[in-house]
Amino acid sequence: MGAIDQGTTSTRFILFDRAGIIASLAQKEHRQIYPRPGWVEHDPAEVWQCTQEVIAAAMQRKGIHPDDLAAIGITNQRETTILWDRKTGSPVANAIVWQDMRTEDSVREFSRHGGQDRFRAITGLPLATYFSALKIRWLLKNIPGLRERAAAGEILFGNIDTFLLWNLTGGPEGGIRITDVSNASRTQLMNLEKLSWDRDILDIFEIPEAILPEIRSSSEVYGTACLRAIEGVPIAGILGDQQAALVGQACFHKGEAKNTYGTGCFLLMNTAERIVSSNHGLLTTVAYKFGAQPAHYALEGSVAITGALVQWIRDNLNLIAMSSEIESLARTVQDNGGVYFVPAFSGLYAPYWKAGARGVIAGLTRYANRGHLARAALEATAFQVWEVVEAMQKDSKIELQSLRTDGGMVGNELLMQFQADILNRPVVRPAMHETTALGAAYAAGLAVGFFKNTDELRENWAIDRTWEPRMDGATRDRLRRSWKKAVTRSFDWVEPDSDSAPE
Q1: pLDDT digits (tens, 9 = 90+) for 224-235
Q2: β partners of residue 403
Q3: Model pTM score
Q4: How far apart are CA 130 and CA 340, in angstroms?
C-alpha cells in the first residue's frame, strides 16, 4: 500500500506492508512563503513537483514497481486553498495556507450578522481565518477578473487533496476532480448532516458552485494514476491529515481519541455516527466515511502553533541548529524559570478562537536564559493540549483515560513526560509513529480489499511507550494557573484594521 502524505512543511510517499510496517519512504521539504505579516503561502507547482519526486524516489529505493502496489491513499494539510486554471493546470496564485490570517476583516464582517457561530449549526465550524471558504472569497475578490472566470467554469478550487488527485489522474487531460467528506468538512461550505455543498452559504460567501469538486467517501476507488512511477495504480483513499491519523491510530469506536503533534496540534475524538455540537470552543467535523457505510464524526481541538514554534526558535532566533536539539537545550534547566511562551503567531485557535491574539513571552527576569526559553516552548505545546482536552471532556461528557499520540514531536521524551504531568493522564506513543500516512493507506486498502475490515486494522496497533504522570498536584495547579494568566496577555493584541489584508 502507498500513501502520499502532503503536509504543511514537506511531502512524503510511504509504502506499507499488510502489517502496517514501512517498506520504503521518501520525503522532501517545500518553501514557506511569508509575503506579509500574518500571510502564509505555498507554491502549488512546487508541492506537485515534490510529490512526483518523492513517489519516484520511494519506488526506486526498494525497486518497487506499480504492479506491486494494491492502491494508494492521499492525506493532506487541510484548509490550504488552491485555485487553478482548468485548461492549463496553472495555479492563479500561491496557495493560501491554513495558518494564513489575511481574512481577519472578513471574519469580523460576517460575524456582525449572527455572530462568530452563525454557520456552526450547519458546518460545525465557527467563523475563523482557518477554513477554506474565506480564503476562496479573498482570492476571487482580490485577483482581477477571477470571479468572472470562476463563474464561467474556467477556474477550479481544491484543497491539496483535490489538486494532487487531479494532477495524478491526468490534470488538464481528464483529471478527476473530487474531495472526500473529511476535507470537505473543513471548507465551511459543506452541510455536515447532508454531506453536500450548502448553496445558501455559497451564496453568502459569493462562491460559484462550478469551481467546487464532487464530494465522495474517504474510501473508494476514485481512478488510476497516470504518473509513470505509479501508472495504473488505483487511488482509493483520501483523508485530511488529522482524520487520517485518527484512522491510523485505529480509533474506530466512540470516545477513542488521538493527538497529533506536528506544525500544530490536533486532538480528535470519534463520536461515531452522532454529530456533537461544541459549547467549549471545539470543532465538529467528519472523521471518515468508508464506502457506503455511514459517516463517522469527531470533535476536534485545533492548536495552530506547536512544532512550528520549535522551527521559529531554530530559524528566527538561531538558538538551535536543528529542531531535534530543542530537547537537550531544554534539559539544561530544571524547570521553566517562571517563563511562559504563548505562540499565538496566527491568533489563538481552540478553545479561544481569538484572531487578534499574538505571541507573548511572559515572566521574563534576568535569571531566564536560552534553556528556559527552550523549555517554555516545549511546555507551550503541552499546556495548549491540556486546554483542548479539558474542553473535549466537557463537550463529550467522556473522561479521557489516556492520550494516544503521534506526529513528529512524539520522539521528544521531555515533552511527552511533561504532557502526562500537566494532563494528569498517561500518554501513549504507538509503535508506528507515521499514523497519518498509515491512515490514508488503510482507507485505500479497505477500498480494494487489501484489508478485510477495521478489526484487522485494530490488530496492527501496538504500544511503544507509555508515560505516567509523576508531578505533584500543587505544582500542576500552579503551572496551569500561570499558563492561563500568560494566555490572557496575548488577547486582543491586534486592533481591528491595524495590520489586516486589503479587502
Answers
A1: 999 999 999 999
A2: 427
A3: 0.86
A4: 25
